[in-house]
Amino acid sequence: MPKTSFSHVRTWVFDLDNTLYPPRARLFDQIEVRMTNYVMTTLGVDRPTADQMRKDYWARYGTTLTGLMREHDLDPAPYLVDVHDISLDHLEKDTALANHINALPGRRIVYTNGTAPYAERVLAARGLDGAFDAIYGVEHADFLPKPERAAFETIFDKDGLTTVTAAMFEDDPRNLQAPHDMGMRTVHVAPEALDETHIHFHTDDLTAFLGKLL
Predict the structure, then answer these.
(1) CB–CB of 83/75 below 8 Å?
(2) Three-state SS for 65?
(3) Nearest to 176 by CA among 7, 167, 157
């Protein structure tokens, strides 16, 4: 049981996409289509080229946006508004998850490579609005993305959290390396477990996992 491993935690940091909702919701399918369309329109390339750039920049930089900013001097603000303009109609409210998050002792925050307004929409659709003390998007890290340590440092400094008494919940294992190195408890939320030294716990059911901590 992981409960004793979290007895010291006073700040709970949650990623958003594929963490606070299940991957089967496939919201990122919609976002990826909009990313590709935006690259096609803005850079004047065909769909296969735009799609390859999207994948390549995500792999190299952590987000497609970072690659577009560094390689093409793209203005991030209109891009972020456009790519997150997706339907959330099929997201379901999760009362049990909301209750577990609200019961966690201390401060609860969301930190996403998306935007804070997008996160607010997703949280409302999941019935999690009001469950968090703060919501941080990539804009709050000066558009520097996870997994870069400087991005985490920027957000954590703004929030004033103490990393050695904090935990990070993430679906992307790359985004748990810096929190681990900063002394945080790390939880990989994903269908498949990975044997990595920077991952303390794995779960494929966040609601059930949090229930074990209470």
Answers:
(1) no
(2) helix
(3) 167
